[in-house]
Amino acid sequence: MTNELYIYLSILTPLIAFFITPLSSSNPNLRDSLGPIGGIITFYSSLNIASLYLDGEVLSFTFFQISETLSISFKITGLGVIFGLVASGLWILASIYTIGYMRGNKEKNQTRFFTFYSIAIFAAICIAYSGNLLTLFIFYEVLTFSTYPLVAHKQNEEARRAGRIYMGILVGTSIVFLLPAIIIVWVLTGSLDFSTNGILKGNISNEYVPFLLALFAFGIGKAALMPFHKWLPAAMVAPTPVSALLHAVAVVKAGVFSMLVVITYVFGIDFLTETNGAVWLIWISSITLLLSSCIAITKDDLKARLAYSTISQLSYIVLGGAIATNIAVQGAAIHIVMHAVGKITLFFAAGAIYVATHLSKISDLNGMGKSMPLTFMAFFIGSLSIIGVPPMGGSWSKFYLMLGSVEKDYLLVIYILAISTLLNVYYLLEIPAKAFFQQKRTNIQVTKHPLTVYPTFFAAILTIILFIYIEPLKDITNLIFGN
Amino acid sequence: MMPFIIKNLPILIVITPLMFSLIVAVLNNNRLAWTLSTFASFLTMIFTILLCFEVSYKSNISYYLGNWPPPLGIEYVIDRISIIPIMIVSVIGLIATLFAHNFFTLEIDEKLVSKTYSLWLLTIAGLIGLITTADAFNLFVFLEISSLSAVALVALGSKVDRKALVAGYNYLILGAVGATFYVIGVGLLYGVTGTLNMGDLAQKIPALGLNKSVIVAFTFMMLGIMVKAAVFPLHIWLPNAYAYAPSPVSVLLAATATKVSIYIIVRISYTIFGSSYEIYSFESLRYILLYLAILAMFAGTIMAIFEKDVKKLLAHSSVAQIGYIVLGISLATSPGIASSFIHLINHALIKAGLFMSIVAMGYYTLKRIDVKTIAGLGRQLPITFFSFVICALSLAGLPLTVGFISKLYLIKAAYMSEGIWLPFLILVSSALSLIYIWKLIEGLWYNEKSLKIEKIKELPEIYLPLLVITFLNVYFGIDAGLIIDNSFIASDALMSGIK
Question: Does ipTM surpass 0.95 in this model?
Answer without folding.
Answer: no
